[in-house]
Write a sequence for this structure.
């Protein structure tokens, strides 16, 4: 079981000395250092230390705001630590989840996480109800019959783009747009020329 420390400052003008001193004094076996704004989602050193953590290990930080970029991120991390039996210590906030008070902190964080999920669900349901009151259709959008015909003709026949456009009563540009949206590969120009000759003969 290892003790990992994580220290972070936002800019290179700041220094990590006080955090590193506190982490060493606590007895960290490994210390990961990062210079990165807390508002950015990508933090390589934090991801590295989290990947290293396993059951029974401890993550130590100097202060909560050094770890998390926001409440939602903090709640996610706390749930991860608890579910993987990883101890968590924040020195300046006097949080140590190996103690009864620390476990209480985990419980509170879990309750906040559940409350946040419930609030999100309520906002979604409220939005749906408001949309229905305003007469908006929240079901699956109606199928575009022209688009279906274009795709069917293009994939199952040798008809040219121009001929398909006339049959579906859309422009050539619309035919190409439908094909791009469905990621259908275009046939070669030579292929279309041969098809056009065949259609004229017919």
């Amino acid at each position: 079981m290892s003790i990992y420390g994580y220290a972070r400052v936002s800019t290179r003008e700041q220094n990590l000395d006080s955090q590193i001193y506190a982490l060493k004094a606590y007895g960290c076996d490994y210390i990961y250092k990062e210079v990165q704004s807390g508002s950015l989602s990508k933090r390589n050193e934090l991801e590295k230390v989290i990947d290293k953590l396993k059951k029974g290990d401890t993550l130590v930080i100097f202060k909560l705001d050094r770890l998390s970029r926001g409440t939602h991120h903090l709640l996610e991390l706390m749930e991860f630590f608890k579910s993987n039996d990883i101890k968590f210590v924040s020195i300046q906030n006097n949080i140590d989840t190996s103690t009864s008070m620390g476990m209480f902190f985990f419980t509170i964080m879990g309750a906040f996480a559940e409350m946040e999920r419930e609030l999100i669900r309520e906002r979604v349901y409220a939005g749906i109800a408001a949309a229905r009151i305003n007469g908006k259709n929240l079901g699956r959008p109606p199928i575009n019959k022209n688009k279906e015909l274009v795709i069917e003709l293009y994939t199952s026949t040798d008809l040219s783009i121009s001929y398909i456009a006339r049959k579906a009563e859309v422009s050539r540009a619309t035919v190409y747009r439908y094909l791009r949206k469905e990621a259908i590969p275009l046939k070669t120009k030579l292929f279309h020329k041969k098809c056009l000759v065949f259609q004229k003969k017919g």
In short: The first strand starts at residue 3 and ends at 9. The domain at 3-114 is CATH 3.40.50.1390 (Rossmann fold). The CA atoms of residues 75 and 109 lie 6 Å apart. The chain has two domains: 3-114, 145-201.
